[in-house]
Amino acid sequence: MSVIVQNEQNEKKGFLTPRRRRALKGWLTGFLFALPVILGILIFSYYPAIQTFFWSFTDFNGLEITEWSFYQYEYMFTIDPDIWRIFGNTLLYAFVSVPLGLVLGYFLALAANFKVKGVPVYRLLFYLPVIIPGIVSGILFSTILGGNEFGVINEILHALGMSAGKNFKFFLSGETAMGSLLFMGVWTVGGSMIIWLSAFKNIPDTLYEAAKLDGANAWQRLVKITLPMSTPMIFYNLITGIIGALQCTTPLVIDAAGITGAPGSGFDNSLYFVAIKIYNEAFGGGAYYAYASAIAWVLFAFIGILTIIIFSTSKWVFYGEED
Amino acid sequence: MLKKLSMLGVCALMAASMLLGLTGCEEVKNPNLDENGQPNQIVTDIDYDVTATLKVAYKSENSEKAIVQSLADGFKKIFKNVTVELIAYNDGTANAITKLYNAKTMPDIFMSDSFSMLTLSAKKGLLLDFTRYIEQEIEAGTFALTDYYDAYMKLGQIGFDGAQCMIPRSADRVVCHINKMLIREVEQETGKDILSKIHNGWTWEEFYEVCDLLKEGSTFKKSGRFLLDGEIKWEAVWNPVFKSYGVEYFDKDGNVAIDSEATKQALDHFKYWVSQGYCASPTSGQSADFEYGKGVFYFNSMAASQEIKTLIEAYKDTNNAFTVENASDVYDVVTMPVKADKPLIGAGAAGYCGYAGSENPELVWQFLKFMLTKDGQNAIADSGVNYVPVRKDMADYTDSENNHWGKGYEKINLQAFVYKSGELLEDGTYNDDWNCNTDYFNVKGSKYAVDLNAGVSTFVTSYAAGSKTYETVLTTLKKTWDAALRKR
User: Is there a contact between B283 and A257 if contact means CB atoms under 8 Å apart?
Assistant: First the structure.
């Protein structure tokens, strides 16, 4: 009896009661399991991010800091002659490539969702390009279309009798470079196809059966069932696609005609994207780490605002019926 | 409680990140360095039995590795107890060294080029200034600056006229590499003598005459075949031409002065190469493919041995396969063409810098001093790459017993690399110096070198391509320069 009373008294007095101790042990175990990821994020994401934030208010050149000011931001918006073009290019690429990828991926998934013989093989073939590393596919397209050299397509056309003067320029013209890059993006549309397919699989068959009984045709089933039920996936693809496109560095990989300008900037800066600008400023020889950091933070802020806008207008996304 | 603990943990981690972020901005003082970031003490009296380790970083290329290894082997014969450890780096020099410096894993010696050296000179305590070592050696009578080509030593100086922070390992001058076999084919076809018109010191007019003769051959009449890989984008090509025409980039007060008749003439010079079909348009993505055995001329500063190796590789499975021994049947080299009334040729330098914070700065100097000796320069050639010695007294490549850079290449016109570059003549005097450094940006400060040069490269290539007017490219250049000069 006295032991029970004593325990109760201890429980009231002590901070680490057995229940709390058990909970803390559980919390610590969970924390230890998550620790590698937490450390990874801290060391490889937060630490560099915070460091670049400080650098963006300095004149850091990789070696020393001699002043603290807002100059890098002032320089970006009032002096840099390329910056608006660069942001324009990046936005254009994001706003064309993302919907293009979504729509093509969607229709590809619809086609790959038919229950006919051999469909798994087609799915595999469509998805295969996604597992090819970006560097490899960059070199591949650089060879096919021509980055700094005329590529395989022109070589084939020459063999068929086309004269050298009528070469398709692809990345070697300001007018065709962006189109060529967008065409290149179609190569990995199998990635979003797989996500669409998983979304389709989650739509209950009963919905389609009920719609059929009500007399809905294929188009009506697509518009009234498949599309609304896929909106969470559309939303996810939209967010990740836009973030990815705004950080695009593909022209660097394919060495797209940096013949007359900075590496990866494309012909007449036609493919000069923000992420490439960041790379060139920091590592292009001038070591303008502070300016590169400032651009990176503006890009981060821009992506953040855009993501908030997309989230705030996401009423069209169907998350299932709430209880 | 757990929520509070989690929040506390997140806050602690964020605070730790903030602190870590700030530490990156913190400067650490090295007690061995004075207020100028140089060693407190200069020692030139050296103990040859000293036991130490020297770390030497080189740009990760097999040829450079062979050069450093050969130098290390030679150095070990003098300093028997010194271990030389080689470290390769893959990135661009300035980036690689910045990373090593920030990681506090700096080598004692590292390879660099002039522009990277200028970029790195922004940091006190990074580059070892050899000036005081040189002065003391000169005073002791163990070193003479007159032994070396002035242009290349200057390229190792801050602002190309100040503290000696890089020691050039070789005299890298732009030359015109030639594919003699292709010329002979045209000679046979047209019956015209072409090879005899090519000689050291030839002018642009003579060069164009040869190009026109070569264009008469059926091979080079074809669309898509070009004679010259002109490297129009490279400052070592455009700068001497600009200087020859009298182009002024900035006036004495630092104002932009590039808009002139001389500039138009210099630009037209490059446009002429493209319009006549000698050289592919720099924006076309095409080239003459000299290194694939398809082009006749190549303006480059690469060692003859390297170009010969490349051509041997290009022809190895063809009827025209050749070896180093009979390379002179296929390959030769002459000076880059010059403007008759003001001959100038682009000169560049790759070399080695020392780390000011090294524990053995005197050994660093001794290693680089060895590199400058005849033994050191021969050690470079013995590695298989016949870069041109920076010593004037080693200019005679036909004396290959003493000057190894000519060994095995006696039939090649290696004189092109040193022709009129201040080399020692038979009468004991030195000849004219046609070498031309790219140094116009020093008016504004060397930190702007990379961006200013990039602007001029775009200026030249865009105009030479033929699609843009002089006014358009000039406006772009001015905007680019303005932005570059306002960078911090």
Answer: yes
Is the CB of B279 inside 8 Å of chain A's CB atoms?
no
Model-level ipTM above the cut of 0.85: no
Sheet holding B435-436, edge to edge: B172-173, B345-348, B435-436
Architecture of domain B52-170+349-412: 3-Layer(aba) Sandwich (3.40)
Taking contacts as CB-CB distances below 8 angstroms, the residues of chain B near A58 are 25
Decide if B487 touches A, using CB distance below 8 A: yes
> What pTM, to 2 d.p., does this model score?
0.82
Chain B: nearest CA to A82, how far in angstroms?
9
Best probe of the A interface among B1, B17, B123, B225, by most A CBs < 10 A, is B17
What are B240's two structure tokens?
A: 């001497």
B5 touches chain A (CB under 8 A): yes
Please tell me which of the candidates B21, B122, B283 has its beta carbon nearest to residue A260. B283
The answer to whether B428 contacts chain A (CB < 8 Å) is no
pLDDT at A260: 61
Distance of residue A189 Cα from the nearest chain B Cα, in angstroms? 29
Domains and CATH numbers, chain A: 18-55 (no CATH), 73-316 (1.10.3720.10)
Interface membership of A177 toward B (CB under 8 Å): no
Contact call for residues B190 and B209 (beta carbons, < 8 A): no
Domain map of chain B by residue range? 52-170+349-412, 173-347, 439-485
pLDDT attached to residue A266: 84
- CB–CB of B122 and A63 under 8 A? yes
Element spanning B352, H or E: strand B350-354
Task: Compute CA A213 distance to the chain's CA centroid, rounded to the nearest angstrom.
Answer: 41
Chain-chain contact of A259 with B1 (C-beta, under 8 angstroms): no
Q: Which pLDDT value is given to residue A196? A: 85
Phi, psi of B338 (to 5 degrees): -130, 165
Does the pLDDT of residue B18 top 80, yes or no? no
Distance from the Cα of A93 to chain B's closest Cα (Å) equals: 23
Task: Report pLDDT digits (tens) over B233-275.
Answer: 899 999 999 999 999 999 888 899 999 999 999 999 999 999 9
DSSP B372-441: HSHHHHHHHHHTT--PPPSBGGG--TT-TTT-GGGTT-TTS-GGGGTTTBSPBPTTS-B--B-EE---GG
Contact A146 B92 (CB under 8 A): no
CA pair distance A274, B416, nearest whole angstrom = 45
Rounded Cα–Cα distance for residues B290 and B227 (Å): 8
pLDDT in tens, A138-155: 888 888 887 555 678 888
B173-347 CATH choice from 3.40.190.10, 2.60.40.3080, 2.40.128.50, 3.40.309.10:
3.40.190.10
Q: Is the pLDDT of residue B71 over 80?
A: yes
3-state secondary structure at position A296: helix
User: What integer is the mean pLDDT of B273-286?
Assistant: 88
Residue B24: band (very low, low, confident or very high) from pLDDT cuts 50, 70, 90: low
Residue in B98, B223, B458 closest to A260 by CB: B458
Are B52-170+349-412 and B173-347 in the same CATH fold?
yes
Work out the pLDDT band at B19, boundaries 50, 70, 90. Answer: low
Which amino acid is located at B445 in the chain?
A: G
